[in-house]
Fold this sequence. Notes:
It is a single chain. The chain is α+β, with helices and mostly antiparallel strands. Helices cover about 25% and strands about 35% of the residues. It contains 4 helices and 6 strands; from the N terminus they run βαββββααβα. The chain is globular and about 50 Å long.
Amino acid sequence: MEVTVVVGATVGAPFAPADGSDGYTQVSAGSTRVTGYPVGAGHIDDTLTEDGEPTAALVLMEEPALPGRSVRARPVALVHALVDGRPRAEVMCVPAHDPNFAELTGPVALREWHADEETLAVVLHRLDPDHHWRVAHCEGPVAAEEFLDEARDAYERLTGRPE
């Protein structure tokens, strides 16, 4: 499955492969290997969640994106978080056809990139500092795709399903 994430904000993150498989070394000055890859936060159009908003999405990217940029991506995880104590789901994505992210296929691979629940919560807080974030757990791409299918169905029910 591929989706289009409309990015609203981007922050730096410590996410990078632990084994250096992206081709950068620890001494590559200014490389993404030293600084980690940026994460964009945004939404997926033509979806609707239980709170009446488009599906929230995160996208791990090679380069930061300007607000409003659309990124074609594939879901790799469904992030379950508590925001100020209230449950929220975010779809974690990677660029659809970028070979740097080909090995990112689910929560285990994300953890190998240092994107564990605690670090995800820190990045989410940087994107939305007015709220307290706690990431409870992450499910794999199948759960993310099912969540997106339900959100698309909800959108189509609200706007009129094409027959």
